[in-house]
Design goal:
alpha+beta, Aminopeptidase, six-stranded mixed beta sheet, 11 helices, 23 strands, elongated
Length: 465
């Protein structure tokens, strides 16, 4: 069996186990049993991270150890109407030409691809490489708790390859931070006397709130907020978003208004499609429904004003790298029932502008009377220029692919930022095959990119003697 087929087989086996962030216990146990079956030393730490050890190949006994690292969790999102419980339901993977996809859900190639490539490298005893420590972390897609709490004793290596990259012709050597911003508020409800409607924005492209934030994609939360402002409505409920690091592709609200909702929806849908011509599948629907209670007028106006005015998108482009996003913000989750809960994720590769986002959040909380919490803030992995590892990766890529390798930063959080914060001298890069539309049901893995990627990684390991 060819390398790429063996990797896909590992991915299919791994993916049979539901493994959304916070639900990795069973897949962690699977990895421990996998290591035992392959006679590898293995342990699981108290946070659920799994660490495996593979001895150096013959001739590499004196080479410095190298770390391979990936995360075992995935973002679980599904198409509208898809019956899917991410805690219990496995994803349904299929091939479509040159792509691996999942039926109606995200695929989990972010970072199942990295896990599968690591398992292949660990299982193939014909490969030439130094001693390998393989680290599989938990909750990367939410809190990065696994990387943040990894014992520093596991980072005693000169080189670390993070296998969580999504572009076949480049590697990353730096990343932005992420700041989780949460607003909460009690609400006051009153009896409704106006016609009630359920409105819904759905079938948007969505995507990664870092890598895709500069693309012309609409946010379903922002669409519904603007539409509600146009209808001068009172709000009964609002439900949007599953994960804060995905551009919201579907949102639903129940409102009460004496406005002509049909006319407002048509006008706004036409305006959105004109502004976002690539959102070809966008639907904005409405239907009449019974609404007994709504937020009091003050709370309704406050919520609609907040959601309409808060920015979701790019703030600043890089001063140094053309076409590279420096600072952005995504409003990813809104839940309104008996209380209000809003989650926003800010990203920046500038410490100054990252602090600016937190100040702005504090100002919004004061202005609207919402409570503010910042439960997590990940560090920045700062660019440090070319080093020995980057030179090895460039040479390996040139020999395998016959082209020059691009070395870039990424407007997203990578676990390397945590490792760099405690081991600043360790040389790290992020590498992986070509993935598209991660964190969305349109996620797909380009199969033809896999062979070159794994060959390139293996060639780099051979050069680390």
């Amino acid at each position: 069996m060819q390398r790429d087929e063996r990797i896909i087989e590992e991915f299919m086996n791994f993916s049979r186990i539901p493994h959304g962030s916070g639900n990795e216990k069973k897949v962690g146990e699977y990895l421990v049993e996998w290591a035992k079956a392959h006679n590898l030393k293995c342990e699981m730490d108290s946070y659920g991270n799994v660490i495996m050890e593979k001895d150096a190949a013959v001739g590499y006994e004196n080479a410095e150890k190298v770390i391979l690292q990936s995360h075992m969790d995935m973002v679980c999102v599904a198409d509208s109407g898809k019956e899917y419980n991410p805690v219990t339901d496995p994803i349904e993977i299929y091939r479509d030409g040159d792509f691996l996809k999942a039926k109606g859900t995200s695929l989990g190639a972010d970072d199942g691809a990295g896990v599968a490539m690591m398992l292949y490298i660990l299982s193939d005893n014909t490969l030439k490489h130094p001693a390998i420590r393989a680290i599989f972390t938990v909750e990367e897609e939410t809190s990065m708790k696994g990387a943040e709490n990894l014992n520093i004793k596991y980072l005693d290596a000169k080189y670390l390859l993070n296998l969580d990259w999504e572009e076949k012709d480049s590697i990353s050597s730096s990343c932005s931070n992420t700041v989780s911003i949460i607003f909460d508020s009690p609400v006051t409800k009153e009896k409704n006397t106006l016609p009630g409607y359920k409105i819904k924005a759905m079938n948007l492209l969505g995507g990664h709130s870092g890598c895709d934030i500069n693309l012309p994609r609409a946010n379903a939360i922002k669409i519904l907020a603007s539409l509600m402002l146009d209808t001068n409505c009172s709000v009964a409920s609002f439900n949007a978003g599953r994960v804060v690091n995905a551009i919201c592709a579907e949102a639903e609200a129940v409102i009460a208004t004496d406005c002509d909702v049909a006319e407002a929806v048509k006008a706004f849908k036409d305006a959105i499609k004109a502004e976002y011509p690539n959102e070809t599948a966008l639907e904005i629907t409405f239907e009449k429904c019974d609404v007994e209670t709504v937020l009091c007028k003050a709370d309704s106006d406050k919520l609609i004003s907040f959601l309409t005015s808060v920015h979701s998108g790019v703030f600043y482009m890089s001063k140094y790298t053309p076409d590279f996003v420096e600072t952005s913000q995504n409003i990813g989750i809104v839940k309104l029932s008996d209380s209000l809960h809003i989650e926003i994720l800010a990203r920046s590769s500038s410490k100054f502008h990252s602090e600016e986002r937190k100040r702005a959040a504090k100002a919004l909380a004061i202005a609207y009377g919402y409570s503010l919490s910042i439960p997590s803030e990940n560090p920045i992995w700062e660019e440090k220029g070319e080093n020995d590892l980057i030179r090895i990766m460039k040479k390996a890529y040139s020999e395998v692919v016959g082209e020059d390798l691009k070395v870039i930063g990424v407007h997203a959080g990578l676990e390397c930022a945590f490792f760099s914060s405690v081991k600043p001298d360790m040389q790290m890069v992020s590498v992986g095959p070509q993935l598209y539309d991660v964190h969305s049901p349109k996620e797909r893995w380009e199969i033809s990119s896999l062979g070159k990627t794994i060959d390139f990684i293996i060639k780099a390991l051979e050069m680390m003697y």
